[in-house]
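Input chain follows. Return structure tokens only.
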Amino acid sequence: MFSNVLKNKLLAGVSFGLGATVLVSLLIYSETLRSFHLSLSNHLFRESAPHAGITIIAIDEKSLDPQNGLGRYNDWPRTYFVQALTALREHDPKVVGIDIDFSSPSKGLSEQRVQEMVRALEGGKNPDFYPVLKETVKEVNHPDDLALQKIITDMGNVILLNARLGLTEEKGEYRAVSLDEKTPKSAIAYSGDGFGFALPDRDDVVRKTVLLLRDDDEKVLKSFDVKISEKFSETAVKNMNNKINPFTPTLINYQSLPGSFKTISFSDILAGKIKSEDFKDKIVLIGATAKILQDIVTVPNSSIPMAGIEVHANIIQQILQGKFLNEQTKIEQVLFSALMGVGGAVLFNYLIFSLGVVMVFVLGVLYWFGARFSFAQGMVLHMFYPYITLLLVLIGGAFYKYVTELRAKRYLKTAFAHYVNSSVVDEIVAHPEMLKLGGEHKEVSVLFSDIVSFTSLAEKMSPSEVVALLNEYLDAMTKVIFNYNGTLDKYEGDAIMAFFGAPLPVQQKADRACKSALEMRRALVVLHERWQMEHRPLIDFCVGIASGNVVAGNLGSQDRFDYTIIGDTVNLGSRLESANRQYGTKILVDEKTVHEVTSGVFVFRRLDQVRVKGKQNAVRIFELLGEVVTTRPEVIRLLHEFENGLAFYEKGQFAEAQKYFEAALEVYPNDVPSQIFKVRCGEFLKRPPSQEWDGAVELDKK
């Protein structure tokens, strides 16, 4: 079963992809590696301009400065906030949110009240301090609390943070629970308040909040941020209800960095340094930003901690702009991993390994940009498990390719070991991508050789002698072909078919074919020397070479096939080998081969124009006589006389042509082509050819 899977790229890809999905699904539901997702998702946040309708009044280091500010925060009377709200009321803010815990009542005399009493005494007055002291020791209704309560009530647009609610989770929903009811509360503890919860993840980064809760009476409670937003824009809160899952944590879409909102020091407000345009018709948030007050949290969009009041500002901006975020469900994560796993594995299997690695990298990059785009649309894709899926695809694909390519290399080595020499086999195994066994067009030079009159010779020998002689001959000829990186196509009895330029392309394929033919002739001489000493019969052979386009590939049935070539070039090469008997030559080549060989290396004799049976166009054929460096002078004289005679012959001037062919025979009396053309000239002088004569000769023998 496993081997069948490996044979099928599609099935193997689906199998590996589903396997990767199963492993990733286990990680998804166990949330083992969620921290990696959280870290990567931090980079999805994009900074945008802070909401122009939000101003922060910060209890900052300047406000706490003992010399130029208001001093230690724990010594602040709540009348400071009364003064601040009184100043703000003059500039018509739309809503004021105070992120300060006023739930515990004030106690004793503030430093400010003591200073007022001292100044009264120094002024010569003798006020009765008893009523004042009596009021300040009450557990509730402290004068400062009452004053703050009054200004809040009078303004009617102040929202306080309710710090006396806790959270509990029931069946996937959060509920509000009251904290210690026995603790004394100030008069302003629950006046127009809203809860506020920052929910840190396991890495202590605050990414979520809760906007709506139910209490024990099933009453829906609104958060501090929702109440402020509702005061500013009821429409925005209505739209919010359609975009969030109530009573569950909501992702905070941080759009502004720490310190980016319009911020004014609390001490400047009390000093009267106020510009109306900073507050009129705006949301004013009052809260701590000084580090010593420890109301700072780690946020995902910045390496700098953010003050809690700025977190509220980001949440309010999110509500007003309707830019809510939703995470993928676990089911969606599994389905997405399956899509990436199966799709990636299948594609990987159909690509070479290097391109497969590039594909995995590209998919990873595309997923990153896709995740950023999705985040901008409000959907947070998981930032780690898809990469785990791609990694598993890469590992599975590499394993698949290792196993299948190992088998393929063994197959190629076995398949081609009998066709080509060992160096070509090694090249095929090392670079199988260069090979297309299914069939492809190739430019090759094909070589046919056949022993002359071998049938009659074999009749005079015993079968064992025939086999021994033939094996020696074929072994010697095949070694020559392999030495020139030729591919042995087949043996057909005593005939050899080979080609140059497939399965792998080679340089100077026509040169290699011609050199092989000449080397085969020399190898035959060596065989003859040995056979003569052994008193064995001698043989001769002819060669035909043609160059051109063929179809190369594995041809045959499903059970038996061979790598071979087919096409007109193959047929022409076979015809040329047979034509040697007609012209009394040893090696015939076609015109394309002559044009493709390196100039000045070989000596060719131009012969006839021949027309292969079934083809209309005639083909010029040449005799390969040898290499230039080894050609004797008398051969050059023969070629000179023959070429002149052929030129007159093709013009129809047969008398002049006959003279040159006779001159060629004086150089080589047994030159068969010269004899043939001399006879033809004599016949044409007796019976001239028709006007349609083009000099072409039919090759009807194969």
